Amino acid sequence: MAQARAVPAASEVRFNRFLASVYLVMAVGMAVTALVATSVSNNPALMKRILFDPWFTFGLFMIQMIVVVWLSAAVMRMSPAAAFLLFLFYSALTGLALSSIFIYYSQTTIAYTFWVTAGMFLFGSVVGFFIKGDMSGIGRFLMLALLGWLFGLIFTMFFPMSPGLNHMMNFVGILLFAGLTVWDTNRLKQLSAQLEGKQGMGALVVIGALALYLDFINLFLLLLRTTRR
Q1: Alpha-carbon torsion 184, 186, 192, 194, what sign?
Q2: Domain hosting residue 193, numbered range
Q3: What integer is the mean pLDDT of 83-91?
C-alpha cells in the first residue's frame, strides 16, 4: 500500500520539476525579450528602420514565423541545447519587434500592464494545473477560435472598421489567450505523464516554454492596446 502511494507521489514530484523547468526557460526568454526591446528602444537609427521600413518589418515578421514553425515541427529531433538556443533567438527577435511599444506607451503603462498580465497568466496556469480532465475538445475549439480571430484581426488591419469593433477584437483576444494559457498548462501536464521516463522531455520543456511564452506575449500586447484612447 505504501509503495502504491509512493509511485504517484514520485510522479507528481517529477512533473513539478518539469513544470518548474518550463517556467524557468520561459522566464529566460522573457528576460531576453525585455533586454533586447529596451536596448533597441535606445537606438534611434534601428527604431527608424523598424517603424518606417516596411520591408525590414515584414522580413522580421517572416523570420519570426519561420523560427516558430521550424522549432515546433523539429523540436523533438533537436538536442535540448539546440532547441533552447533557437527559443532564445526567437525571444530576441520578439524583443526587436516589440521595441516600438516604448514610443507609443509610457514606461509606467508598460510596467503596470506587464504585472496585470503576469497576474492573469498565473491564474490561468493554476487553473490549468488543477484541472484533471482531458481538455482536448476545448483545445480544438480554442485553436479554431484562434484562426478565426487572426483572420478577423488581419481583416481589420487592411480594412479599418469602427473603434467599437477593434475593442471587441481586443476583448475576444484577451479571453482567447487566457483560455489558451489554461489549455497549454493542462496539455503540458498530460504530455509529461505520457513521456515520463522517455526521450524528448528536454525538447518538451522548450516547446512548452514557447507555447506559454506566446500566450503571455499576446495577452500582454492585447491588454496594452486597451490602455490606448
Answers
A1: negative
A2: 2-225
A3: 93
